[in-house]
Amino acid sequence: AQKITQTQPGMFVQEKEAVTLDCTYDTSDPSYGLFWYKQPSSGEMIFLIYQGSYDQQNATEGRYSLNFQKARKSANLVISASQLGDSAMYFCAMREGLESYQKVTFGTGTKLQVIP
Amino acid sequence: GAVVSQHPSRVICKSGTSVKIECRSLDFQATTMFWYRQFPKKSLMLMATSNEGSKATYEQGVEKDKFLINHASLTLSTLTVTSAHPEDSSFYICSALPASGADTQYFGPGTRLTVL
């Protein structure tokens, strides 16, 4: 069974608009961490945001926020005020356990294209 | 801070030869490094977890004799693809976990391997 599911292979968004990238996860471990990474065409993986399973508030980092719905097991990424430079692949990932050395599993990614 | 480099960024080799890829944490010490493989337009697949001074832990289905991993220091891990074949052509990405503790691993820019 897929541990991380990203159902949107591709998304378009108008520049300056907000966009939500979906991510659902599956785990029976009460302790886990959720991540979002950005991968531009150059290939490097850029860390965007992290949410721990016990964190009470949704994580935010600048224009990025993580909409954490624990009961629904979803961790959607919201990008506000989209910019052309946001065009990239976006990967949701989960670490089962809260120790940083534990394995991280990635979703299949969503390709975001920002339209001028 | 938290910069990870990989060398080479691109390599083309003949079938049957071996290729070494280096992963360095430039401004932090990393007791744990991870090696991933990414096929075109696909997700990252964890190949192995590399711990400084000990043997790497390989994921199921990854041949340890084909993908040799050495983590000789707190800032360097190497992946050697032995007797490379065209099916080994892929994008290889490493990541490093700061020894000081961090929620996320930091990724290198990746190495594009093409085996002719």
Mean pLDDT over all positions of chain B: 92
The main pleated sheet of chain A reads as:
6 strands, mixed
Count of β-strands of chain B: 11
Q: Shape of chain A from CA axes?
A: globular
Cα shape of chain B: globular
**Largest interface, and how many residues on either side?**
A-B, 21 and 24 residues
Main sheet properties of chain B: 7 strands, mixed
Order of helices and strands of chain A: EEEEEEEEEEEE
How many DSSP helices of chain B?
0
End-to-end separation of chain A in angstroms reads: 38 Å
The helical percent of chain B reads under 10%
* Percent in strands of chain A: over 45%
Q: What integer value in Å does the Rg of chain A equal?
A: 14 Å
What is the H/E order of chain B? EEEEEEEEEEE
- Helix vs. strand class of chain A: mainly beta
Report what the structure shows.
The complex is a heterodimer of chains A (116) and B (116). Chain A has 116 residues and is mainly β. Chain A is 0% helix and 51% strand. In chain A, strands 2, 5, 6, 10, 11 and 12 form a six-stranded mixed sheet that branches. In chain A, strands 3-9-8-7 form a four-stranded antiparallel sheet, with no helix packed on it. The model of chain A has no long low-confidence stretch (mean pLDDT 94). Chain B has 116 residues and is mostly beta strands. Helix content of chain B is 0%, strand content 54%. Chain B contains no helices and eleven strands. Chain B has strands at residues 4-7, 10-13, 19-25, 30-38, 44-51, 57-58, 67-73, 76-81, 90-98, 106-107, 111-115. In chain B, the strands form two sheets. In chain B, strands 2, 4, 5, 6, 9, 10 and 11 form a seven-stranded mixed sheet that branches. The chains are: A mainly beta (116), B mainly beta (116). Chain A binds chain B through residues 33, 35, 37, 42-47, 50, 52, 91, 100-101, 103-109, and chain B through 31-32, 34, 42-46, 49, 91, 93, 95, 97, 101-110, 112.
